[in-house]
Amino acid sequence: MEEEKEPLFQIVRRKGKAYVRAMPYTVEKPTEAQKDVRDLVATAVKLASQLTAEEVAELIGGEVAGSNLVYYEGQLLPTQAALTKWMVSGMKSPKTKGKIPKWMSIALDLLEKIKTKEVEKV
Q1: DSSP 3-state assignment of 14?
Q2: Mean pLDDT for each 10-residue chunk of the chain (122 residues)?
Q3: 77, 85 in Cβ contact below 8 A?
Q4: What is the dihedral angle through the alpha carbons of 24, 30, 33, 37, rounded to the nearest 10 degrees?
Q5: Beta pairing partners, 9
Q6: What is the rounded CA–CA span in Å between residue 57 and residue 63?
Q7: Are 60 and 86 in contact (CB under 8 A)?
Q8: DSSP string, 66-79
Q9: pTM over 0.85
Q10: How far is CA 8 from CA 20, 34, 76, in A?
């Protein structure tokens, strides 16, 4: 006999008002495109943990603001968040509908090479 799961809820805030709603079904069953984005975020966090704040700032065009802080696009962010924001901004999975920009396909190819360790460590 299969155990029933309790329904999951989330608090959402839009236009200054908060309300409760059921969690989207994609929380437990993400689409292929959502899996791609989640993989990219995980890769960015892992990569950032191996780099210094100076290396992250140089890579993304930000400024070092502390041992683990980078000033990027007007925001003071931890190095992992800054690198993740830089990598995910404008990200579009090949599995989504619509045209993928050339730079994004290059980034996805590079990500695939990093995952398969075809690229030497910096």
Answers
A1: strand
A2: 70 89 83 85 86 89 89 91 86 69 74 68 50
A3: yes
A4: 90
A5: 22
A6: 5
A7: yes
A8: ETTEEEETTEEEEH
A9: no
A10: 10, 19, 33
